Amino acid sequence: VSVELIGSMGGDLSVVNAARVSFHKRSEEMGDRERGLVRFLMENRHGTPFEMVQLQFRARTPIGVAREWFRHRIGSFNEESTRYVEMRKEFYIPEPDACRAQVGKPGHYIFERHHDPEKVREMMGWAYEAAYLAYQDLMALGVAKELARNVLPLGLLTEFVWSVNLRSLFNFLSLRTSPHALREIREEAEQVEMLAAQVAPECMAAWGACGRRSV
Ligand SMILES: Cc1cc2nc3c(=O)[nH]c(=O)nc-3n(C[C@H](O)[C@H](O)[C@H](O)COP(=O)(O)OP(=O)(O)OC[C@H]3O[C@@H](n4cnc5c(N)ncnc54)[C@H](O)[C@@H]3O)c2cc1C
What we know:
The protein is an alpha+beta fold. The chain contains 8 helices and 6 strands. Helix 7 crosses helix 8. The site of flavin-adenine dinucleotide has 10 residues, from helix 6.
């Protein structure tokens, strides 16, 4: 399970200069005025200048996490093919402290640490082994990869490339770093947030200071 920044276009100054074109002005470097402008744009939800920054990530996550990630339509994805290549035998086994029980009513669930995390991990491991064995057996029988893949579980790791602009990223982060988000996607989103701060630190700081909401 991993996420890395593989490319980016623009940064804090791209946002500033996209906004300043309105007044026939342009900044060469970030100073107090520019920081103030970024903060003003964020506070007043002038969202489009933040679309000028583009980030590209490569992630390797369980299929179940990727499925949630792909719901974020404002962005572009390419994922490894399960039709053309054989899936690698890599599955998500949660760390002991991530093995949890779901307690309470729908909409008000609380997740508590499971009383027997080692048993949970062991059972998941068995299920993965059995599924992967069936997958290989089906292919050995001559079944096409695109059909054999149906026996593989949501815990199998998949890999994808994601290109997203900073405005859309704010929306993703506000939803997926929230305490309500699935723990596994939350951990990935926290990585994404750290990586985005390398590209546009002032924008990320302003977003944090203005309530971490969609812009
Ligand atoms: C805690 C949590 C639980 C969830 N549970 C479920 C669930 O049980 N079932 C389920 O199906 N999904 C669930 N989702 C997914 C959720 O409904 C969204 O699909 C997902 O979070 C993507 O958000 P988004 O649409 O804002 O992002 P994007 O698709 O990236 O869109 C970004 C923004 O663009 C605008 N936009 C994009 N497309 C349209 C459009 N067609 N019309 C109008 N405006 C648009 C909206 O302003 C939107 O916020 C859950 C999400 C979270 C965070």
